[in-house]
Specification:
Elements (H helix, E strand, L loop, with lengths): L1 E9 L2 E9 L24 H12 L6 E7 L12 H13 L4 E5 L7 H8 L3 E9 L3 H8 L5 H13 L3 E8 L6 H15 L5 E6 L7 H7 L8 H9 L6 E2 L18 H14 L12 H16 L11
Helix pairs in contact: 1-2, 3-5, 6-8, 8-9
Bound molecules: iron/sulfur cluster (SF4) and zinc ion.
Length: 313
Protein backbone atom coordinates (compact mmCIF):
# COMPACT_ATOMS: atom_id res chain seq x y z
CA UNK A 1 0.00 0.00 0.00
CA UNK A 2 1.24 3.48 -0.79
CA UNK A 3 -0.30 6.86 -0.08
CA UNK A 4 0.67 10.39 -1.01
CA UNK A 5 -0.74 13.85 -1.20
CA UNK A 6 -0.65 16.12 -4.25
CA UNK A 7 -2.69 18.72 -6.10
CA UNK A 8 -5.23 18.07 -8.81
CA UNK A 9 -7.43 20.02 -11.15
CA UNK A 10 -10.96 20.23 -9.68
CA UNK A 11 -13.60 22.40 -11.37
CA UNK A 12 -10.92 24.40 -13.10
CA UNK A 13 -8.77 25.06 -10.04
CA UNK A 14 -5.99 23.34 -8.13
CA UNK A 15 -7.26 21.30 -5.19
CA UNK A 16 -5.61 19.06 -2.58
CA UNK A 17 -5.81 15.35 -3.31
CA UNK A 18 -4.88 12.11 -1.63
CA UNK A 19 -3.85 9.11 -3.71
CA UNK A 20 -3.84 5.64 -2.24
CA UNK A 21 -2.59 2.56 -4.02
CA UNK A 22 -4.02 -0.59 -2.51
CA UNK A 23 -2.31 -3.92 -3.03
CA UNK A 24 -4.82 -6.30 -4.56
CA UNK A 25 -4.36 -9.48 -6.57
CA UNK A 26 -3.57 -7.05 -9.41
CA UNK A 27 -4.80 -6.58 -12.93
CA UNK A 28 -6.36 -9.65 -14.49
CA UNK A 29 -5.19 -8.70 -17.96
CA UNK A 30 -1.46 -8.22 -17.32
CA UNK A 31 -0.49 -8.17 -20.97
CA UNK A 32 0.18 -4.54 -21.84
CA UNK A 33 3.67 -4.04 -23.23
CA UNK A 34 4.65 -1.14 -21.01
CA UNK A 35 2.94 -2.12 -17.76
CA UNK A 36 4.96 -3.15 -14.76
CA UNK A 37 1.82 -3.78 -12.73
CA UNK A 38 1.67 -7.20 -14.37
CA UNK A 39 4.36 -8.41 -12.00
CA UNK A 40 2.78 -6.77 -8.95
CA UNK A 41 -0.11 -7.94 -6.86
CA UNK A 42 -0.69 -10.72 -4.40
CA UNK A 43 -3.84 -12.32 -3.07
CA UNK A 44 -5.49 -9.96 -0.60
CA UNK A 45 -8.38 -10.97 1.62
CA UNK A 46 -11.33 -8.66 2.18
CA UNK A 47 -10.03 -7.93 5.64
CA UNK A 48 -6.58 -7.13 4.32
CA UNK A 49 -8.04 -4.68 1.80
CA UNK A 50 -9.97 -2.92 4.53
CA UNK A 51 -6.88 -2.76 6.74
CA UNK A 52 -4.89 -1.19 3.89
CA UNK A 53 -7.68 1.26 3.15
CA UNK A 54 -8.02 2.33 6.79
CA UNK A 55 -4.28 2.85 7.09
CA UNK A 56 -4.30 5.05 3.97
CA UNK A 57 -7.46 6.93 4.90
CA UNK A 58 -6.19 7.93 8.32
CA UNK A 59 -3.98 10.43 6.49
CA UNK A 60 -7.07 12.22 5.13
CA UNK A 61 -7.23 15.89 6.00
CA UNK A 62 -9.71 18.66 5.35
CA UNK A 63 -7.50 19.84 2.47
CA UNK A 64 -8.06 16.64 0.55
CA UNK A 65 -10.97 17.50 -1.72
CA UNK A 66 -10.19 14.63 -4.10
CA UNK A 67 -9.37 11.03 -3.21
CA UNK A 68 -7.97 8.59 -5.74
CA UNK A 69 -8.18 4.89 -4.91
CA UNK A 70 -5.94 2.95 -7.27
CA UNK A 71 -5.19 -0.76 -7.26
CA UNK A 72 -2.66 -1.36 -10.08
CA UNK A 73 -5.64 -2.84 -11.87
CA UNK A 74 -9.38 -2.29 -11.90
CA UNK A 75 -11.21 -1.03 -8.82
CA UNK A 76 -14.45 -2.29 -10.38
CA UNK A 77 -13.15 -5.83 -10.93
CA UNK A 78 -14.89 -7.87 -8.20
CA UNK A 79 -11.97 -10.30 -8.18
CA UNK A 80 -9.70 -7.44 -7.11
CA UNK A 81 -12.06 -5.52 -4.86
CA UNK A 82 -15.17 -7.43 -3.76
CA UNK A 83 -18.34 -5.39 -4.02
CA UNK A 84 -18.96 -5.23 -0.28
CA UNK A 85 -15.43 -3.93 0.31
CA UNK A 86 -15.80 -1.38 -2.47
CA UNK A 87 -19.06 -0.07 -0.99
CA UNK A 88 -17.49 0.30 2.44
CA UNK A 89 -14.59 2.28 1.00
CA UNK A 90 -16.86 4.56 -1.02
CA UNK A 91 -19.10 5.10 1.99
CA UNK A 92 -16.12 5.98 4.18
CA UNK A 93 -14.69 8.46 1.66
CA UNK A 94 -18.09 10.09 1.16
CA UNK A 95 -18.77 10.45 4.86
CA UNK A 96 -15.32 11.99 5.40
CA UNK A 97 -16.57 14.99 3.42
CA UNK A 98 -14.35 14.42 0.37
CA UNK A 99 -15.79 16.07 -2.76
CA UNK A 100 -14.69 13.68 -5.43
CA UNK A 101 -13.57 10.07 -5.77
CA UNK A 102 -11.49 8.82 -8.69
CA UNK A 103 -10.81 5.18 -9.44
CA UNK A 104 -9.47 3.24 -12.41
CA UNK A 105 -11.01 0.40 -14.33
CA UNK A 106 -10.69 -1.49 -17.56
CA UNK A 107 -13.85 -0.97 -19.64
CA UNK A 108 -15.21 -4.49 -19.24
CA UNK A 109 -15.95 -3.91 -15.55
CA UNK A 110 -17.65 -0.53 -15.94
CA UNK A 111 -21.44 -0.73 -15.66
CA UNK A 112 -24.01 1.98 -15.17
CA UNK A 113 -25.15 0.29 -11.93
CA UNK A 114 -21.69 0.19 -10.36
CA UNK A 115 -20.96 3.82 -11.20
CA UNK A 116 -24.41 4.86 -10.04
CA UNK A 117 -23.86 3.11 -6.69
CA UNK A 118 -20.78 5.26 -6.14
CA UNK A 119 -22.09 8.47 -7.72
CA UNK A 120 -25.15 8.34 -5.44
CA UNK A 121 -22.77 8.85 -2.49
CA UNK A 122 -19.99 11.01 -3.90
CA UNK A 123 -18.98 12.68 -7.14
CA UNK A 124 -17.31 9.85 -9.00
CA UNK A 125 -14.79 9.78 -11.82
CA UNK A 126 -13.87 6.59 -13.64
CA UNK A 127 -10.40 6.62 -15.16
CA UNK A 128 -10.00 4.36 -18.17
CA UNK A 129 -6.70 3.54 -19.86
CA UNK A 130 -7.70 3.92 -23.49
CA UNK A 131 -4.08 4.81 -24.42
CA UNK A 132 -4.94 5.50 -28.08
CA UNK A 133 -8.06 5.71 -30.21
CA UNK A 134 -6.36 3.56 -32.85
CA UNK A 135 -7.40 -0.08 -32.52
CA UNK A 136 -4.34 -1.02 -34.57
CA UNK A 137 -1.90 0.65 -32.18
CA UNK A 138 -3.79 -0.45 -29.04
CA UNK A 139 -3.93 -4.04 -30.23
CA UNK A 140 -0.55 -4.51 -31.81
CA UNK A 141 1.77 -2.02 -30.12
CA UNK A 142 0.34 -2.24 -26.63
CA UNK A 143 -1.68 -5.46 -26.38
CA UNK A 144 -4.46 -3.80 -24.45
CA UNK A 145 -7.17 -6.26 -25.41
CA UNK A 146 -10.17 -3.99 -25.89
CA UNK A 147 -11.47 -1.85 -28.71
CA UNK A 148 -12.28 1.83 -29.01
CA UNK A 149 -15.94 0.78 -29.31
CA UNK A 150 -15.72 -0.97 -25.92
CA UNK A 151 -14.16 2.13 -24.41
CA UNK A 152 -17.02 4.23 -25.75
CA UNK A 153 -19.58 1.83 -24.25
CA UNK A 154 -17.85 1.98 -20.87
CA UNK A 155 -17.63 5.77 -20.96
CA UNK A 156 -21.29 5.93 -21.87
CA UNK A 157 -22.19 3.59 -19.00
CA UNK A 158 -20.18 5.73 -16.58
CA UNK A 159 -21.95 8.87 -17.77
CA UNK A 160 -25.38 7.26 -17.55
CA UNK A 161 -24.49 6.22 -14.00
CA UNK A 162 -23.88 9.87 -13.14
CA UNK A 163 -20.08 9.68 -13.16
CA UNK A 164 -17.46 11.50 -15.16
CA UNK A 165 -14.71 9.94 -17.25
CA UNK A 166 -10.98 10.54 -17.20
CA UNK A 167 -9.30 9.01 -20.22
CA UNK A 168 -5.64 8.07 -20.14
CA UNK A 169 -3.73 8.48 -23.38
CA UNK A 170 -0.25 7.05 -23.80
CA UNK A 171 2.35 9.22 -25.46
CA UNK A 172 4.59 6.96 -27.51
CA UNK A 173 3.42 3.36 -27.44
CA UNK A 174 6.14 0.97 -28.62
CA UNK A 175 6.96 0.82 -32.35
CA UNK A 176 5.85 4.40 -33.04
CA UNK A 177 8.27 7.06 -34.18
CA UNK A 178 8.33 10.37 -32.30
CA UNK A 179 6.28 12.08 -35.03
CA UNK A 180 3.76 9.22 -35.22
CA UNK A 181 3.44 9.25 -31.44
CA UNK A 182 2.59 12.96 -31.44
CA UNK A 183 0.05 12.47 -34.24
CA UNK A 184 -1.41 9.44 -32.51
CA UNK A 185 -1.87 11.34 -29.23
CA UNK A 186 -3.45 14.34 -30.95
CA UNK A 187 -5.80 12.19 -32.97
CA UNK A 188 -6.65 10.14 -29.87
CA UNK A 189 -7.41 13.30 -27.91
CA UNK A 190 -9.73 14.46 -30.67
CA UNK A 191 -11.48 11.06 -30.81
CA UNK A 192 -11.72 10.53 -27.05
CA UNK A 193 -12.86 14.06 -26.17
CA UNK A 194 -16.59 13.53 -26.90
CA UNK A 195 -16.60 10.57 -24.48
CA UNK A 196 -14.43 12.08 -21.76
CA UNK A 197 -14.54 14.87 -19.20
CA UNK A 198 -10.79 15.13 -18.84
CA UNK A 199 -7.81 13.60 -20.61
CA UNK A 200 -4.64 12.48 -18.88
CA UNK A 201 -1.57 12.24 -21.08
CA UNK A 202 0.73 9.54 -19.74
CA UNK A 203 4.30 9.71 -20.96
CA UNK A 204 5.75 6.26 -21.41
CA UNK A 205 8.41 5.25 -18.94
CA UNK A 206 10.34 2.00 -18.79
CA UNK A 207 8.95 -0.26 -16.09
CA UNK A 208 10.81 -3.31 -14.88
CA UNK A 209 10.10 -6.75 -16.25
CA UNK A 210 8.07 -5.52 -19.21
CA UNK A 211 8.33 -6.29 -22.93
CA UNK A 212 9.03 -2.60 -23.42
CA UNK A 213 12.01 -2.83 -21.09
CA UNK A 214 13.44 -5.60 -23.28
CA UNK A 215 13.06 -3.40 -26.36
CA UNK A 216 14.71 -0.52 -24.53
CA UNK A 217 17.63 -2.68 -23.36
CA UNK A 218 18.56 -3.49 -26.94
CA UNK A 219 18.14 0.07 -28.14
CA UNK A 220 14.86 -0.40 -29.99
CA UNK A 221 12.90 2.12 -27.97
CA UNK A 222 13.45 5.64 -26.71
CA UNK A 223 11.03 7.21 -24.22
CA UNK A 224 9.20 10.29 -25.54
CA UNK A 225 10.88 13.65 -25.59
CA UNK A 226 9.33 16.11 -23.14
CA UNK A 227 9.10 18.50 -26.10
CA UNK A 228 6.67 16.02 -27.68
CA UNK A 229 4.48 16.16 -24.59
CA UNK A 230 4.52 19.96 -24.74
CA UNK A 231 3.54 19.78 -28.41
CA UNK A 232 0.51 17.60 -27.60
CA UNK A 233 -0.57 19.61 -24.54
CA UNK A 234 -0.35 22.90 -26.45
CA UNK A 235 -2.56 21.61 -29.22
CA UNK A 236 -5.45 20.22 -27.20
CA UNK A 237 -7.81 22.94 -26.10
CA UNK A 238 -11.36 21.61 -26.40
CA UNK A 239 -11.12 19.54 -23.21
CA UNK A 240 -8.98 19.75 -20.05
CA UNK A 241 -5.81 17.71 -20.43
CA UNK A 242 -3.49 16.93 -17.57
CA UNK A 243 -0.09 15.32 -17.48
CA UNK A 244 2.17 14.14 -14.68
CA UNK A 245 5.60 13.54 -16.23
CA UNK A 246 6.53 10.59 -14.02
CA UNK A 247 10.30 9.91 -13.91
CA UNK A 248 10.96 12.89 -16.22
CA UNK A 249 14.63 13.40 -16.97
CA UNK A 250 15.70 9.96 -15.73
CA UNK A 251 17.15 7.16 -17.87
CA UNK A 252 13.84 5.30 -17.82
CA UNK A 253 11.57 8.30 -18.05
CA UNK A 254 10.48 10.79 -20.71
CA UNK A 255 13.39 13.13 -21.30
CA UNK A 256 15.06 15.86 -23.28
CA UNK A 257 18.79 16.58 -23.08
CA UNK A 258 19.32 16.48 -19.32
CA UNK A 259 19.78 20.25 -18.94
CA UNK A 260 16.22 21.41 -19.56
CA UNK A 261 14.24 18.39 -18.31
CA UNK A 262 13.38 19.77 -14.89
CA UNK A 263 12.18 23.12 -16.26
CA UNK A 264 10.06 21.48 -18.96
CA UNK A 265 8.62 18.92 -16.50
CA UNK A 266 7.77 21.76 -14.10
CA UNK A 267 5.97 23.63 -16.89
CA UNK A 268 4.01 20.46 -17.73
CA UNK A 269 2.98 20.15 -14.07
CA UNK A 270 2.01 23.82 -14.05
CA UNK A 271 -0.10 23.35 -17.17
CA UNK A 272 -1.94 20.45 -15.50
CA UNK A 273 -3.13 22.75 -12.74
CA UNK A 274 -3.83 25.88 -14.78
CA UNK A 275 -4.55 24.63 -18.32
CA UNK A 276 -2.62 27.69 -19.45
CA UNK A 277 -0.47 26.92 -22.52
CA UNK A 278 1.36 30.18 -21.81
CA UNK A 279 3.49 28.24 -19.27
CA UNK A 280 5.35 26.78 -22.24
CA UNK A 281 6.14 30.12 -23.90
CA UNK A 282 9.48 30.83 -22.26
CA UNK A 283 10.88 27.32 -22.50
CA UNK A 284 13.84 26.86 -24.76
CA UNK A 285 16.99 24.82 -24.97
CA UNK A 286 19.58 23.88 -27.55
CA UNK A 287 18.09 20.38 -27.69
CA UNK A 288 14.83 21.63 -29.14
CA UNK A 289 16.41 21.81 -32.59
CA UNK A 290 17.58 18.19 -32.22
CA UNK A 291 14.03 17.13 -31.26
CA UNK A 292 12.66 18.99 -34.28
CA UNK A 293 15.08 17.08 -36.50
CA UNK A 294 14.06 13.75 -34.93
CA UNK A 295 10.40 14.54 -35.57
CA UNK A 296 11.23 15.56 -39.12
CA UNK A 297 13.70 12.85 -40.11
CA UNK A 298 13.06 9.69 -38.06
CA UNK A 299 10.21 8.58 -40.29
CA UNK A 300 12.36 9.09 -43.37
CA UNK A 301 15.00 6.84 -41.87
CA UNK A 302 12.59 4.07 -40.90
CA UNK A 303 10.06 4.17 -43.72
CA UNK A 304 6.63 5.56 -44.05
CA UNK A 305 4.66 5.81 -40.81
CA UNK A 306 1.32 4.05 -40.92
CA UNK A 307 -0.24 6.03 -38.13
CA UNK A 308 0.23 9.54 -39.45
CA UNK A 309 -3.02 11.46 -39.35
CA UNK A 310 -2.33 14.56 -37.38
CA UNK A 311 -5.26 16.53 -36.13
CA UNK A 312 -5.48 19.64 -34.02
CA UNK A 313 -8.18 20.01 -31.43
S1 LIG B 1 -1.94 -1.20 -18.39
FE1 LIG B 1 -3.78 -1.53 -17.16
S2 LIG B 1 -4.90 -3.12 -18.28
FE2 LIG B 1 -2.80 -3.20 -19.03
S3 LIG B 1 -1.79 -4.75 -17.76
FE3 LIG B 1 -1.44 -2.76 -16.81
S4 LIG B 1 -3.05 -2.52 -15.29
FE4 LIG B 1 -3.68 -4.15 -16.70
ZN1 LIG C 1 17.43 20.53 -23.48
Amino acid sequence: MAVWRSRDLLDGEAAGSLTMILRTRGCRWRRCAMCGYASEGAPASEEDLIVQFRAAAKDLSAEDRVVKIYTSGSFLDPAEVPESVRSRMIEAIASAGVEKLVFESRPEYVTRELVEASAAKIRTEVAIGLETSSDLVRDHSIGKGFSFAQFKEAADAAHRGGGSVKTYLLLKPPFLSEASAISDALRSARDAAPHSDVLSLNLTNIQRGTPLERMWFIGDYRTPWLWSAVEVLKNVSSIPIICDPVAAGTRRGPRNCGRCDEAVAEAIRGHALTQDPGVFDDLDCGCKAAWEKVVELEDLAFGSPIYMDSGRL
